[in-house]
Write a structure and sequence with these properties.
This protein is mainly beta and about 240 residues long. It folds into 2 domains: about 10-65 and about 100-140, Elongation Factor Tu (Ef-tu), domain 3, CATH 2.40.30; about 160-230, RelE-like (YaeB-like fold), CATH 3.30.2310.20. Helix content is about 10%, strand content about 30%. Strand 11 (about 210-220) and strand 12 form a beta hairpin. The model has no long low-confidence stretch (mean pLDDT about 90).
């Protein structure tokens, strides 16, 4: 019997799973904090990390943990293939893992006591981190590596704004959420909706970054227009 401890918690802008980048480093504006938890919450545990530019985070998909009583999921529908075709679970990075474990590579911005400031996160807020390891360029970078399923980053969509909505977002940004506009642009450019959907222009989508509700629609294929940015109601 093996037991896994949470060594840290991730504090990120992503209050909801929808619109989180599907891979790390796709949205550099997605900054967060990795905060050590007891009994690991001692600056000694991070000694030397200031010399490291990137780290690997092993974490739990805490809102998508498998049901131990259910049969194992051997195949999944990765979004990269449109959400319809199936592949073996071990050929994908689907969040539906046998043990609910994921891995992300993020950039270290600063180390401050028991907190690591990072960029390029793709984690839901409050994600449990179960291990932290330094990126080692000579071992982790393999120029000859290939992946016929996902050789290149997915194509991005155009993100436009209604002028008054952009002005409102900029006001929120200056008030208490620096980098908000860039974060929204980078995340929505990944096209959060399922690839198989072709929504009518009147269909609205939405998600929450920090305490900010963001809404958008698709007036045409390959185009997003942000139609709303507002403070979420307390308690939401």
């Amino acid at each position: 019997m093996h037991q896994i401890q949470t060594v840290a918690l991730a504090h990120t802008p992503f209050a909801e799973k929808f619109a989180i980048p599907r891979q790390p480093m796709l949205a550099p504006a997605a900054v967060g904090i990795i905060e050590l938890q007891p009994p690991f919450d001692d600056p000694l545990a991070l000694q030397g990390l200031e010399q490291v530019s990137h780290i690997w985070l092993s974490f739990l998909f805490h809102e998508a943990l498998p049901d131990p009583a259910a049969p194992p999921r051997l195949r999944v529908r990765p979004p990269r293939l449109g959400g319809n075709d199936k592949l073996g679970v071990f050929a994908t990075r689907s969040s539906h893992r046998p043990n609910g474990i994921g891995q992300s590579l993020v950039k270290v911005l600063a180390v401050e006591g028991t907190r690591i400031h990072v960029a390029g996160v793709d984690l839901l807020d409050q994600t449990p981190i179960i291990d932290i390891k330094p990126y080692v360029p000579y071992a982790d970078c393999l120029p000859e590596a290939s992946n016929g399923i996902a050789q290149q980053a997915p194509a991005q969509v155009t993100v436009d704004w209604q002028p008054e909505v952009l002005a409102g977002a900029q006001a929120v940004e200056q008030s208490h959420r620096p980098g908000l506009v860039e974060l929204i642009n980078q995340c929505l450019a990944q096209d959060p909706k399922p690839a198989y959907q072709t929504p009518p222009p009147e269909r609205m989508y939405g998600t929450r970054f920090w305490d900010v509700e963001v809404k958008w629609h698709y007036p045409a294929a390959g185009q997003i227009v942000v139609t709303g940015v507002a403070q979420a109601a307390p308690g939401e």
